[in-house]
Every structure is written in structure tokens, then in C-alpha cells.
Amino acid sequence: MPFFRTIISVIFVGLFMLSSLILLPVEFFIRKKSPKKATQFSYIVITNAFRTLTFLSGSTPKVYGLENIPKDRPVVFMGNHRSYYDLIISYCYMPCPTAIYSKDGLKKAPAINVWMKCIDCVFLEMGNLRQNMEAILTGIDLLKKGTSVLIFPEGKRNKGEGVLEFHAGSFKLATKTGAPIVPVVQTNTREIFEKHFPWLHRQKTTLEFLPPIETADLSKEEQKALPEFTRQQILKAYLEKK
After folding, report:
1. How far is CA 52 from CA 5, 75, 77, in A?
2. Is the peptide bond before 211 cis (omega within 30 degrees of 0)?
């Protein structure tokens, strides 16, 4: 079964790229008339593609805490990161519009890179501090315009247990805008693909949205402690669900 799941998923990705030859011109036409509707269209396309990939992997997650996502303001989603499927699964449950922070490797993926730009994906370059600071400024601007953002502050996929140290720069997204942080906790996503590379395996996973952490009017000391405080919240929930 892992072999067939993998082959079918690869075929789906290929078909998605081919369908983009039709869907992307439609998105372009909609964007000329209404950028907001174009973003909604792209969000629908991407979330349905991600739902399909999750279904094909056989790993439908158990989801908790959707009621913790504020409905009236943009937020900064911050999650632990162990697998490519962290993004694929979690994005399906996030509101539109939500932008994604991703490594610049997605820039090289045909069709997918264009769709990422359509939902305001912000690309990060490993080791390029100047570019990454510009990326944070881009995210701050998106939040001010009403777009939520998703970022994985560990900065890379964790191949061990627990939760790696968080990069403090990521938290400027929240502290510079006053946007609340919604911690996102996922378990067992690494067992879907990375642990069994190159095959996809059926796996029970969990996805939990923790209560928002308010960031408006924090003191300098509280801002300094925010990365570790958030990490501890995620680590605690991760160990409980593991």
C-alpha cells in the first residue's frame, strides 16, 4: 500500500500542475477585476489540493481547538515543524486569507510556486539575514492589511523529539503589529513520509490550535521572553498528544 499511495500522490501532483495551465489564467483574470476574490479563489484551489494530498496519504488528522482561532482579526500562526505535511495538513484549517512562510525551495516547483505567490507566500533564504529581515517586514505589512500568516519558528524540520529553539526574529510579526499568536501543535506528521522515505505511510496524526497569546502592549522583558514562552506552550501540548 505505501508504494501505491506514493505513486497515486505523485500522479495527483502531476495532474494538479497540468490543471494549473487552465486554473492560473482564470486566477489572473479574476485578479484583474478583484484581488480579494482572486486570493479567495487561490485559497480554495490550494486547500483542496492539500486536502487531497492528505487523503491520499491515508493520514486524516484529529483536529482540536478550532474555536481558538480569532474570527475578527489577523493572527500569527506559529507551529512546530517535523514534516512537509505540517504545512499541507494545517493550512487546510486556517482562515482565508492566510499567507505562508516557506523556504525558497518552493520557488523552483513548477506551477506550485505561482500558486504560493497567489496566496502571498513569503520565501525565506537559509543564511541570508538581510533577505529574511525583509521577509519579516513583508509579513508585518500583510498583517496590517488583514492577512494572517503561518510560520514555523524552529526554522527547519526537527528530526528528533520535542521542539527546537525558536528564532526570535519570527516574533516581530506579532510584537510589531499587536497581532495575537495562535500556537499550532502537530504530532506524528514525520511518520507519514520522512521516516519512511520515499514512501507514504498511513498514520494517525493530531493538529491542535492552542488559545491565542496576546502580544499588544507587552513590556520589553515580556517580548524577550515570548519566544520561549510560546515554545513551552507548544512543547507541553506536543508531549501530551504524543
Report:
1. 12, 26, 22
2. no
- Per-residue pLDDT averaged across 113-136, rounded? 87
Q: Which one-letter DSSP state was computed for residue 92?
A: G
* Cis peptide upstream of residue 95 (ω within 30 degrees of 0): no
pLDDT mean over 108-114? 84
3-state secondary structure of 206: strand
Mean of all residue pLDDT scores within the chain: 93
Backbone angles phi, psi at 199, to 5 degrees: -105, 150
Nearest to 184 by CA among 152, 139, 229: 152
CA nearest to 152, candidates 138, 141, 137, 163: 163
Give residues with Cβ within 8 angstroms of 218, minimum separation 6: 175, 226
Q: Pick the closest to residue 234 from 83, 80, 121 (CA basis).
A: 80
- Looking only at the bridges linking them, the beta strands covering 122-124 and 148-151 are unpaired
Q: Tell whether the model's pLDDT for residue 203 goes beyond 90.
A: yes
Using the structure block, give the residue that is written with the C-alpha cell 507551529: 79
Q: How far is the C-alpha of 61 from the C-alpha of 53, rounded, in Å?
A: 12
Q: Residue 65: name the closest of 42, 97, 90 by CA.
A: 90
Alpha-carbon span 222 to 217, nearest angstrom: 9
What is the b/e burial string over 168-207, where b = at least 16 CB atoms within 10 angstroms of the residue's CB? Answer: eebbbbbbbbebbbbbbbbbbbbbbbeeeeeebbebebbb
Angle in degrees, 0-180, between the axes of helices 35-57 and 2-33, rounded to the nearest 10 = 180
